[in-house]
Amino acid sequence: MTVLTHAASGWTIGTGKPLSVIAGLNVLEDEGLALEIGSELKRICGQLGLPYVFKASFDKANRSSIKSYRGPGMEAGLKTLASVKAKLGVPICADLHESAQAEPVAEVVDIVQIPAFLCRQTDLVVATARATAAACGIVQVKKAQFIAPWDTKNIVSKIGEAADVGVILCERGSSFGYNNLVVDMLGIPEMQKLGCPVTIDATHAVQLPGADPRTAGASTGGRRDGVAIIAKAAIASGADGVFLEFHTDPDKALCDGPSCLPITDAEGLLTTLKALHEVVSA
């Protein structure tokens, strides 16, 4: 059995536990929107008995265009995340991009996320592992689009050699030809064999990198209708948790709008995913 528990909040993920939910915004736009999304997701997860973590990025460092919105930055973003954490009383998940960010991020963020494109950057992985362990947090690593599921063992080994800290692996699709990603559901049990809980990032799995017709390829497109399909398939395949991004008006979202869902879809989708998870777990 593989179970992780966040010491401060009691949030759990893993074998025999309820479906874990990491959900929120793609990127911080303002505190009001973060609280609106987070409050609704907390309400739904509380009603369904699902462990909930609020997610939002303070910086999207890999945008397709230099003109694209990246977020408020680390200093302002961490202040907002700390405020959301205090007001909602839920743990927080956010990603980082540079080794120097590890300590300040781990002081606020409970689940520190290593982005897919950076998951093999040894200095970042080691710094994140040590800072997160010192803060009694959990590290979530997104599997890169260019590596096989079983090759995440090297990332898990790096983290284990650097620090004693819980690790979640996150499936988010593999590059397949041009401007497309494909999720191999057989990869979920393969990564679980490494002794880590596995989540599905159903939002980014439906991205069409560099293929947003609205900007002539200057931003990433997406297939919003596929989010629920990917999420349901992954939970049916044994995933321990789901990673989702919502917005009050996805078409006006400042980042990855084509891939995120309207917040009004959250209750129905999470209700279905809970039922699927219970069937699979039984």
Summary of the model, kept short:
With 282 residues, the protein is of the alpha/beta class.
Number of helices: 8
Number of domains: 1
Structural class computed from helices and strand pairing: alpha/beta
CATH superfamily: Aldolase class I
Shape: globular
**Assembly classification:** single chain
Helix content: 25-40%
Order of helices and strands: EEEHEHEHEHEHEEEHEEEHEEH
**N→C terminal distance:** 14 Å
Number of strands: 15
Tell me the major beta sheet.
8 strands, parallel, barrel
Unreliable parts: none
Report the top-level CATH class. Answer: Alpha Beta
Strand order of the largest sheet: 3-4-5-6-7-8-11-14
Query: What percent strand?
Result: 15-25%
Using the CA coordinates, give the radius of gyration: 17 Å
Report the average pLDDT across residues: 93
Architecture, CATH level 2?
Alpha-Beta Barrel
CATH topology: TIM Barrel
Polypeptide structure, described:
The chain is built from 8 helices and 15 strands. It has 282 residues and is α/β, with parallel strands linked by helices. The chain has a single domain (3-281), classed as Alpha-Beta Barrel (TIM Barrel), CATH 3.20.20.70. The strands form 4 sheets. Strands 3-4-5-6-7-8-11-14 form an 8-stranded parallel beta barrel, surrounded by 6 helices. Strand 3, helix 1 and strand 4 form a beta-alpha-beta unit. The longest helix is centred in the first third of the chain and has 18 residues, at 31-48. The mean pLDDT is 93.
